[in-house]
Structure formats: C-alpha cells, structure tokens
Amino acid sequence: DTAVSQTPKYLVTQMGNDKSIKCEQNLGHDTMYWYKQDSKKFLKIMFSYNNKELIINETVPNRFSPKSPDKAHLNLHINSLELGDSAVYFCASSPREGGSPLHFGNGTRLTVT
Amino acid sequence: GESVGLHLPTLSVQEGDNSIINCAYSNSASDYFIWYKQESGKGPQFIIDIRSNMDKRQGQRVTVLLNKTVKHLSLQIAATQPGDSAVYFCARAGGYNKLIFGAGTRLAVHP
C-alpha cells in the first residue's frame, strides 16, 4: 500500500543516454512534484504539476522533461545524461497547492558514468 | 533572497536526552513551515508542521517552536531514541506549495 512509489530505485547509465523515472501516487492528490537531492543532501524542487498541468519549472535544463498522463502519475524523462545529473530524485505529492505537507517517495538514485 | 538554513550540521545526543534542532529563515512572508525526517535510503517523512499564526505546536514527543521576530524555527524531540537517528530538514512553503528546504541536520543518537 505504498503511497508514492518510484521506479527504478537505482539507475546506472552512461553519459549521453536517455532515461526515464516513473512515479505513481495512490493518495488521490492533485499535485505532484519532482525534487533533486545532491550529494550534500540538499533538496531542491524541479517541477510541480497540478492535475496534469505544469505549475512550477525551476530553471531546470530542457533535457529534463516531466510528463503527467493523469493526476496519479508524474514521470521524468532525461535526455543526453551528464555526469552532473547524478543525484537522488524524489517524487512527491500533496492534496492541494498550498499549505499542506508533501508526501515523498523513496527516491531514485541516478548514477551517470 | 529566500533561504532556509540550519545552525548545526551534526548533532550527537545520548539516548533519553532531549534534542533541539534549529533552523533560520530569511523570508518574512513565510506562513507555513514543516519539519521532515529522512532515514538512510528513504524519502523525507513528514514530522510536524506549523503555520505563522502559531508560536508552538506539539506532536508525539516532538514540539515545533516558531519565533517570527527573529525568523527562527526549532524542532524539539523529547526522550530521544535510537530510531530518531536521521537527517532532519526544515522547510518553508513558498508559492504553489513549493517547499524550500534547509541544508539538513544529522541527528546521531548514542546508547
């Protein structure tokens, strides 16, 4: 009964490849997010979608393209992977846009070699 | 600019002692604050939140204090247990529920 689930948990790939991370939430939330956590544990928002519409795009390179086929799913596709993309990527969801806690998945550790 | 930061990167406590984790923020327009706990290999887990119209909020063994005058937030954990060992983050809700996170404090609980 995992609330926010991401796949895969680990992803190791070479520079220049294209990869996708999938996220699904079964909480009935309208808003979903992608966060990036670097090697120093710093968490930074990348994207936010509300009911399939893009709300936040935090100056992320356009190699990163989120896609929300429905409000329960928010996938992240990354083109032409670079070494600096290595990080842990977290998906999250919340019931509404403001003033509510986010529920996070357990992350996808991406390693680009 | 907007920032949320923590005073102590690492905090070591004895089991049974109380822990206090501090956080400072710079944006006075902040109206919602959250504390998260992150265990190794897992995502951040919600602990407690507080809105700007409150100074204090209590949960089970945890208390959050908000001092808007000095823009300071703290998390108090009573009778700290080994299971409390984790990285703790404070976060401020920005527009569209964007959470701006602090750098994190690692809490190490020793028997």
Describe this structure in words.
The complex is a heterodimer of chains A (113) and B (111). Chain A has 113 residues and is an all-beta fold. Chain A has strands spanning 4-7, 10-13, 19-25, 31-37, 43-50, 53-57, 64-70, 73-78, 87-94, 103-104, 108-112. Chain A is globular. Helix content of chain B is 0%, strand content 55%. In chain B, strands 2, 4, 5, 9, 10 and 11 form a six-stranded mixed sheet that branches. In chain B, strands 1-3-8-7-6 form a five-stranded antiparallel sheet, with no helix packed on it. In chain B, a hairpin with a 5-residue loop joins strand 9 and strand 10. Chain B has 111 residues and is mainly beta. The interface between A and B is medium-sized, with 28 and 26 residues.
The multimeric state of the shown protein is: heterodimer
* Helicity range of chain A: under 10%
> Which residue ranges of chain B are poorly predicted, with pLDDT under 50 across at least 5 consecutive positions?
none
- Category from helices, strands and their pairing of chain A: mainly beta
Radius of gyration of chain B: 13 Å
Strand percentage of chain A lies at over 45%
Q: Give the N-terminus to C-terminus distance of chain B in angstroms.
A: 41 Å
The largest pleated sheet of chain A is described as: 7 strands, mixed
Count of DSSP helices of chain A? 0
Work out the radius of gyration of chain A. Answer: 13 Å
The arrangement of helices and strands of chain A along the chain is EEEEEEEEEEE
Strand residue content of chain B = over 45%
The H/E string of chain B reads: EEEEEEEEEEE
Largest sheet of chain B: 6 strands, mixed
The average pLDDT score of chain A comes to 92
Distance between the termini of chain A: 34 Å
Q: Which structural category fits the helices and strands of chain B? A: mainly beta
